[in-house]
Amino acid sequence: MTRKELQKIEEKSKSLIQRLCDTSPRSPRELCYNQGSSKCYCKGGLADCSGKLHVPNISYAPRFKPNIKCLILAHNNIRGLTDSFFANVSQFVAIDLSSNKLQTISSQTFRRFTDLKYLILNDNVLGLKNLYPVFNYPPSLRLDIVGLDLPALPVNYFDNCSVIHTSQIYMDSNYMPVLDLNVFAKLDKLEYLSVTFSNIGKVISAPLCNLKVLYLDNNTISAFPETCQNAININNSNFDSKSACANSEKRGYSFSDERTALFPRLTQLYLGHNEIVSLPQKDQFCLSKVVILNLQTNNISEISEGAFTSLRSLKALHLDRMNNGITKIGSSAFNIPALTSLYLSRNRIQFASKDVSTKMLQGCTKVHVLAIDHNSLNGMTDDMFEEFLNYTPSLKYIFMSSTEMQIIPVTAFSRLQKLEKLFIYVNAITEIPPGAFDNMLSLRYLYMDENHISTLKENAFSPETRLRLQAINLSKNPYLCDCDLLWFRSWALEAGPKQFMDFNYYLCSNMPNTSVQSYSLSKQACLFSRQAYILFTVCLSILFVFFLAFAVLYRYRWDIRLLMYERRASRRIATDAPGGFRYDLLWFTFVATIEYQMVYSTHNFSCLYQNKWRLQTCIHQRDFIAGGFIIDNIVEAMNASRRILVVVSSRFSQSNWCNFELQIIQSHIITHDLPSLLVIVLDNIEPRDMRAPMLALYNTTCCLEWPTETRGINTFWKRLEKSLVTVLDNRLHDTSVMVVDDRPLGSLRDAS
C-alpha cells in the first residue's frame, strides 16, 4: 500500500475516533497518567499512551477516569494480549493496538468490553488462527486489520462464531489471490468491506444483502465480479439467500426473478487500478442501487451501446486513465438518467474518430460534471461539438484541458446555460471569437492558460461578461503586445490578481521580459489599426519587389535582349537550314564602329580595303537593309563576313547600342568558333568608363592603337595588313577561294 493510501485510511480512522471520543480542537491536552517512564496524555475522552518508533511507552492498560472512552496503545511492542490485559478498564469504545508486533490474542481479551465499537489491529503479525478470538467479541462498528499479510479466508472461517454485528471491515494490504465473498455471507450486518492492495486476481461473488460499500481497488482482478445470482453457483450450501435477503423484496427486488441481485443494497463499488478487460453484458449488470462506480485504470478499451443503461441509480462513473486507452464508444453508452458526474480523462480517446459516437451522452440530461481532459478533440467540427454537448443541458463543470482543441465551439457552449466552470487550458486555441462566452450566463470561472492566443479583440468579452467572471486565467499565452491589446491591459490592471489568476504570467512574446500589464505604446503608434499597418506593409513590400525587379531588368536589359534574340534567331536558322548552318560569305570584314566618318574617309579604310587590298567591307550606314531589325542586320552581316573589325572609341564605350552590338559579336565568335576580333582603338579610354563587354574585350584581345602622330600611320597600316595576312594564312591555308573583284583572297599578299 502506498503512503498516500495509508494516509487516507489513517485520516478516516482519526475522524471516527474523534467522533467516538468527544475530542475537539478546543479540548486541552494534559498528562493523565505518569508512572516511571510510562506516560499517557488525555484530550477530551481520548487517552494516548502510544510509544515512539522502536521506543515502547507502556506494556499494559492503566486505569483512567470514567470519561475516557478511547485508548491508543500503538508502537508499544506488545507481543500478546492476555485475558487480564484490560483488567483495569472496561469502558472503552475504541482501542488502537496498531504497530505492536502483536502475535497472540487470548479468547477472553475483549470479553469485558460491552460497548466496543472500533478496534484497530493494523500492522501486526497476527495470522488467521490468532485473529480468530477477535470475532468472539467483535466491535459493533468497525474493525481494522490492515497490513497483516493475511491469506485468503476459508469459506467456513466464521461458521463457529457467535453473531457478528461488525458493520465495517478494513482488511487492506493482505495477500489474497482469491477473494471468496461467501466467507462474509454470515455477517448479515456487514455494510462496508475494503480489501485493497491485496493481490486479488479473482473474486467469487456471493449474496451480501446488506453490503453498501465494496472497495476492491489496487488488485489484479481481470474480470468484472458477477453481480447477478443466476450467473454464479453459491458455494455456501448452508446459506439461504432468500431468507437472508427477505427484506429486499420490500425494496423492489424479487428473488423469483432469474436475475436476482447479489448486492441489492450496494451503493458504492470501487474496482479501480485492476486489470479488468471488459464490462458485463447489459443483462448481467445487477447494480440498480449503485450510486458510485469506479473503474479507473483498468484495461477496458471498448464501451458498447447502452452499456450502463441498467444502472438506473448511478450518479458518478469513473472510467478515466485506462491503461490502453479507450478506442470505441457506442451511441447512448452513458444513457443513465440519474448520472451527474462522468470521468473519461486520460484515455487517449479520438473524439473525431468514427468509432467514437458523438451521441454517447444521449440521455445524460442531469450530468453536472464532465471530464474529458487529456484526450484528443483534434478534428472536431462545430457540428460535432454541437451534437456531442447537445444532450447535457445541466452541465456545471466541464474539463477539456490538454485535448488539442483548436477552436472554441461557440454554438455548442452557448447552449450550456448552467455551466459555471470551463477548463480548456493547455490546448491549441489561437483566438477567442467575438462574444464567445457572452451567452453563458452562469459562467463564473474560465481557465484558458497555455494556449496559442496572441491577440484578443475587445469584442471577445462583453462588459457584462467581464463583470460576471469571478476568476479568469489567460496566462502563459504568446501575447503580441500592440495597440489591439491595450484594452486587455487596462482590464487586467483594473481587475488585478483577484480576478486574473497567475497574474505574473501574462507576458509579451514580442517584448522580452515585459508583462502585458506593463508594456506601453505611444499615441502615434496606435493611430491606425493593426490591419491598416499590415495592409500598408504588404503594399510597400509589393512596390519594393516591383522596383527591384524593374531595376534588375533595366540593369540587364541588353543582356536580356541578346538572349531573346539568340533564342529567336536559333529557331529561325533551324527552320531555314535544317541540315546545318551554311552561310554565303559576301564580305571579308564586318566593321562595328560609331566613327563612320573615319571609315568612309578615302585615306583610310575605304581606300585600303577596296582600292588597295580589294577586300569587301560591310558597314552599317551603307550595307544594312532598310526596313529590317537592326539586330537582324547585325547578325546577318556577321554570318556573311569572314572577319569582324571593331573600331573602339570613347563614344563607342558610352553608346548602349554599341555595347550591345559588341556583346552580340562576342557571343557570335564563341558560338561559331570564329577567329578573334580585330580591334582598333582610336583614343584612350579609362577602365572606369568601360562596360563589361568592352572591359572583357580589353582583357582578352590584343588591340591596334590608332597613332596620334602622322609618322606612325604607315606603321599602323602595315600592322593591320600583317594581321589580315596572318589570318588568311592560318585559317585558309591559302586554299580558300573568295572572289573579290575577280581576284582570289590568296592574292592579298601580292596586292599589298
How much strand? 5-15%
The main pleated sheet reads as: 19 strands, mixed
The CATH architecture designation of the domain at 585-751 is 3-Layer(aba) Sandwich
Number of strands: 30
What share of residues is helical? 10-25%
Name the CATH superfamily classification of the domain at 585-751: Toll/interleukin-1 receptor homology (TIR) domain
Radius of gyration: 52 Å
Count of DSSP-assigned helices? 18
State the CATH class of the domain at 585-751: Alpha Beta
What structural class do helix, strand and pairing data support?
alpha/beta
Shape: rod-shaped
Annotated CATH topology of the domain at 585-751: Rossmann fold
In terms of per-residue confidence, which ranges show pLDDT below 50 for 5 or more consecutive residues? Answer: 235-239, 247-258, 572-583, 731-752
What is the first-to-last residue Cα distance? 121 Å
Integer average pLDDT: 84
Protein name: TIR domain-containing protein
Main location: membrane
GO molecular function: transmembrane signaling receptor activity
Organism: Candidula unifasciata
